[in-house]
Design goal:
transit peptide; about 35% strand; methyltransferase; six-stranded antiparallel beta sheet; about 300 residues
Amino acid sequence: MNNQNVYILEDRGILYINGADAKEFLQNMISNDINKVSEDSSCFASLLTPQGKFLFAFIIIKHKSGYFIDCEKSQTEALFKQLSVYKLRSKVEIMNLSNEFVVAAFNKEKFLEFEGSKDIAGNTIKYREDSILLDPRNKDLGARLIINLEKLYLSLKKLELKDSPIAEYYKLSHQLGIPQKNMNELQNKLFGIECNFEELNGIDFKKGCYVGQENTARIKLKNKLSKRLLPIYLIEGEINQDDLIYNGDFEIGKVLISNEYPFALIKYLDDNFNQENEFKSKNAKLKIKIPSWIN
């Protein structure tokens, strides 16, 4: 990404959660601490099953008296329904504003040109009435502008940003090892902590209870994390969802996301896994790399 490029992420959806109980409502469900979210700070979080398996991932931004939920648009309706299940008697209003608001991404250097901006993941500022935040998952993903669709192009013109192909943005995300596309293919197939959400600032181990907290904490405290979601780099052939991945005759993982930005759940601590190796699946040769931000 350069300073002039902007990526209009039309494949992102926006939910708005408002009401007297909105903060407590989110705090009881999400894997992160909602108290981290303020006018000048946003966070990444997930919604898990009671067993700690992945369901949804999203970014939470303070907006007026409530919260924007920035999620993959293909999951917006399902997330809306899931949140509604937990609503019960809470004084909470959940709205799908995906047709009114849009997410635009641009690089970190451009973000740091804004007055009051800080080189801190999740740092959030206002451009007029709209939120701009440095991605809370990883600063190298750049910044995100959450803006009303009617104001988008005028604002981009004033910011001297040029609309660029979103494939460039998602290619960067894949190179960084951060999945954002086809996340529905991960649902119920791995634990949230196996998605690297701790390293992506999406899990708070000091907060109180939330859905899936028990198993998440147990995996962490008992050092049971033996598999991780890692990016696949295809050398030749093709891969399909659920293809097994081998080092010689030894299975070391399984393909979970098989689109143009593929990811696999890998036994990364296994003696048969070495990221310098070339691996194989049924119809492909591939490489798998552990991102530099994973310790």
